[in-house]
Structure formats: C-alpha cells, structure tokens
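Submission sheet (multi-component)
Chains listed below:
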Amino acid sequence: MLQLKVNKKLQLPDGLTSLDLEMEFRPGKVTGISGDSGVGKTSVLRMLAGLSEPDNGTISNDGNVWFNKTERQNLIPQKRGLGFVFQDHQLFPNMSVIGNLRYAANGDKNAVDKTTYYLDRFGLSDFKNSMPNSLSTGQKKRVAIIGALITNPKLLLLDEPFAALDEKIVKIIQDEILNYTKESLCITVLVTHEIAEIFKMVDYLYTIKSGKIYSRGTPSGLFTSGASGNTLSIAGIVVGNGGDNDHVKVLVNDQLLEVPRTSETFEIGEKILVNLGAGKIEIMRQK
Amino acid sequence: MDWGPFYLTFKLALVTTLILLVVGVAIANWLAFSRFKFKSVAETLITMPLVLPPSVLGFYLLVAFGPQYAFGKFLIETLHVNLVFTFSGLVVASILYSLPFMVQPIQSALQNLPATLRETSYTLGKSKLETFFRVLLPNIKPSILTGIVLSFTHTIGEFGVVLMIGGSIPDQTKVVSIAIYEEVEALNYDTAHFYAFILFAITFSILLLVYSLNKKPITFFATAKSK
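Outcome: structure written.
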C-alpha cells in the first residue's frame, strides 16, 4: 500500500495555499482525487511521482520509504515504477508514434505485443508511423496512455486523462485501465472532475478542499451521505425552461435533465455546472 | 598569394567549434536546469565576451598564460604547455571568446522546451543522460546549428584576442584578419582586398545557407525564463 502524509505550500493562481494531506492508495484499486480547479490535485500526483518535493512528511510504499524529509530520503522518479499521463502530456516530437512507444518500452520484448494490442484497441494502428505534430490532441493523449500502460507500471498516475477524447474511445480506454489495474495489482490514481468517470472507475475517492481532505470513501457512500458536498459537478448547457418555469432544462452529454431553478438567470446556450450532493441538485454558472 | 592564413583560420575555427560544441552543450545544459545559488555569476562571466573589448580579454589571457605569473608558470614549467604565441593558445582564447555564441542559443532552446518532455522521460525510467541525448538534444537541432555557425563564423572574424595572445607568427598564429591588417599597414591594398573579399564571401555563404535551412531567425541572447 502506498501511503502519503505530507504538507506543501503551493503558489496557485488564487494565491498561496498550504496542502496538508494524508492519503492511502491500494494495489489493484483505482483511487480518485477530486476537487475544484487549482486545489492541488496535480501536485499530489507530482509528489507521488517524485517530480515535486513535499515541504514535510513522508511517502512510503509497502514499507519502502520513497520520501522522508527528516531523513533526507527522496527516491528518484526513475525508480518508482511509474506510468504518468500528464494533463498537458507531450509526446516526444522527434519520434513517431511507434518511436515514442519503443522509447517507453525500453527494449522489453513483451511490450511489442502489448503495443500492437493497445494501438489496435485505441484506434491508432493506422497512425503508428505518424509524427506527433500530425496528430489531434485526443490521438496524442491515447498514445500517451498506451506509453504509460506498456511500461508495466506499479503506480499509474492519470491527470484528467479522458479530456479531449470522444465518448466511445473513452469507454474502451477506461475498461483497459481497469483491467490493467486489477490484473497487475497496480496502484492507479485518477484525478478527475467527471462524476460518470468517478462512478465507473473509482474504488475510493478523496475530495480536496482548501488544501485538506474534505471527504473520503467509496463514491456511492460519499454521494448518499452527502459528505462530498458540492465538489462534484457535471458540465452541461442550458437548453430551455422546464416545469412551470421553476426548472431549467440542461443538456448533459446526450441526456436532458430538469434542474430546479435558482434565483440566478441563465441564458439559453449558457455553459453551467450541475452540482450533485445527497438529496440536493443545484445549478450554477461555470467560472 | 599566401594561403597559410586561410588554412590557419579555418583550422582554428574548426577546432574551436568542435571543442565548443562539447563544452558549450554541457554548460548550456547546466545553466538551463541548475538551481546553483551563484548561477547568475556564471552566466555573467560566460556572456562577458559579448560586451568586453576583445583586446581586454586578450590582454588578461596574455597575462594569465605568460610565464611571469603563477598560473602561466605552472602551465609552462609543470604541464609543459605554452599558450602564449602558439596555436594552442589561440584555440583556448577562441573558445573563451566564442563561448556565449555556443551557450546562449542552446541554453535558450533547452529552457523553452516544455518541462513535461523531461518529466515524461524520467517517469519512463530514463536517466537524465539518456533523456538529454534522446529527447532534449534532438528537439533543439536548429539551435545547435545556430550555435555551431555563430561560433565558427565568430572565430573566423576574431582579431583583437588573436593579436594579443598569438601575435602574428606565419603558419602558427597569423590568421586572415591579422594578415589583412598587416597588408594594409604595408599598403598592399590588392592583397588585403583579396583576403578580405574571400573572407566576406565565405562568411556570407555560410550565414546564407543557415538562414535558408533554418526558418527561424538566428538569435543568440537567451530570452526564455527558467522553468
């Protein structure tokens, strides 16, 4: 089990925040991290990866110390058995798709079959000789996910990996990540805002608010208890009025929802968030 | 017509550029990513030849390498290396004189690469060295070419430093720029013009070729912020 007990001061767009976190991540499980933008979710992944150093505290995996401030221990990222898909992931521009994946595979012969399998599953077989600058954002993201999976990571860190991907391919990728996590007993950590993703992928969810753990538990447990507060939101678009004008019709993915109107006025076509809590649905303007 | 100065000039430029390529890339990498407390002092020293009169640099090198001071004495008596009025001395002086022309474009390009390129490579288990050679360097090829060309042409054109540290010994330290100066002094304008024109044509051709190959303009001042 991977354990993190750290604090770190962060300079975020909204000002200085102090992260003070205690978290656990279990093998064969997907642990979700959610919370508002700029709350420090990516920083957690970077500290787990060894790309960013906590100000204080410890990170350990099965009793092996990865980071200990007082003992001045800090295991380099290369030795943490990682797969990391960054939010703004960059493929290596000097290598083709297959070149990027060969570089990731590091001469592992088993990786060849896996590469072919994932390229096919993720709809990229025809693009294996393409250079990154000729790919769309979504295609690059898919290559990045393959690159992380074929290295047999023991810790898979995913920072909003499904943004910019279309729905059909997202389902395939999610299934593959779940299979890999269970079969390889990988510790998978997923940073996400999307409630659908959380319910499908996440076994245990942490939400962060004001630098602290705001809630923790299984997604269904959190939602029925209301412990997740307003931190989980679905993005949608206002398409009209509903009920006796006391509801707003909102399009979320392909589904039409009717959400109780608030005192605010929403324009048709306006992008909004539907916040979900126990026994409570609320509509708010996207910032 | 004595072709010796041309041979010497291009030999000097070639040797200097090759050594600078290794030294300059290493220094640029260090400057781009190091958190060394006194990095700005190192950056200042390396950039100094851009603004310092070449004769000042040449003078200090002459003093440093000469036998009358401790360092020069050590070089000559202990290491048996004489850097005053020798080709080796010209190479050392040229390396120092052209250092910013190699370091600046490469440092700037390294700093402009997205940090996630390095970080992704590290998370794939790659060492810093492998990341440097397989990811960073291949993605800054135009800037490396810029550094090579600027260092080469700058060395061809140097005068003050060479004159101070090397003097004008035929086939040892008498490079074209000094030959031109001496021909003018002797009022041999035809020979001076011949030397000057060939030097002009060669440097013009090199720069034209690079501008044609490199779509981006040649810049040698670091403009990037350290990430």
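Remark: The radius of gyration of chain A is 20 Å.
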